[in-house]
Design brief:
single chain; 194 residues; alpha/beta; Spore Coat Polysaccharide Biosynthesis Protein SpsA, Chain A; 7-stranded mixed β-sheet; 9 strands; 30% helix
Length: 194
């Protein structure tokens, strides 16, 4: 796979951030927002980056914003929306709440992926991460079928498409840690900035 030629980065940022109480995309670690940090990690490896979000405020990031095809259908709809707009076969999908993701981890995903797998996902400490993963564009067909039957769980899609799972060392655990609550954010922000 030629880097930057055959990969699109898709950042899912359409959630309601209900547990956080504020839009996670604009939260900061150091001087950069979550979205800026994720985009910076993706940038060396992808041809294009897009944000999937219905929030017009996300235009402030200066990254192409794609609207959700299905409203209130969760990350599965976000993946479908991104895949529909992507011009590449391979697409790295990341949720917007993993601000510690790094190029090191993205390189591992790309280097260790299996080209015949429709989904290549990261796993750490036995936990699979379908929102830190590479999806083939043709996954869109299965997602459409699933949403047509009102099935919105990403893990159902992943189990149907028999993914290749790339296990990473537990030292990378922070890179894929989802930040969902103010308490969690405050603790990690303090650790990073102290």
């Amino acid at each position: 796979m030629e880097k930057q030629q055959d990969i699109t980065g898709i950042i899912l940022s359409g959630g309601k951030s209900s547990r956080m109480g504020t839009d996670k995309a604009f939260l900061k670690i150091g001087n950069s927002t979550f979205i800026e940090r994720i985009a910076a990690a993706l940038n060396p490896f992808v041809k294009d980056i897009m944000i999937v979000s219905d929030h017009k405020t996300h235009d402030a990031f200066g990254i192409k914003r794609i609207k959700d095809l299905y409203k209130d259908a969760g990350p599965l709809s976000g993946i479908l929306s991104g895949l529909n707009h992507s011009k590449t076969e391979n697409n790295i999908v990341l949720s917007c709440d993993i601000p510690f993701i790094s190029g090191t981890l993205i390189r591992q995903l790309i280097t260790n992926h299996k080209d015949d797998a429709l989904i290549n996902q990261i796993a750490c400490n036995g936990k699979t991460m379908p929102l830190v993963a590479m999806y083939k564009k043709q996954c869109a067909l299965q997602i459409k079928k699933q949403l047509a039957h009102n099935e919105r769980r990403v893990r159902v899609l992943v189990s149907e498409l028999k993914p290749h799972t790339i296990s990473i060392n537990s030292k990378y655990n922070l890179m894929i840690e989802n930040i969902n609550t103010p308490k969690h954010y405050k603790r990690l922000k303090h650790e990073f900035e102290s």
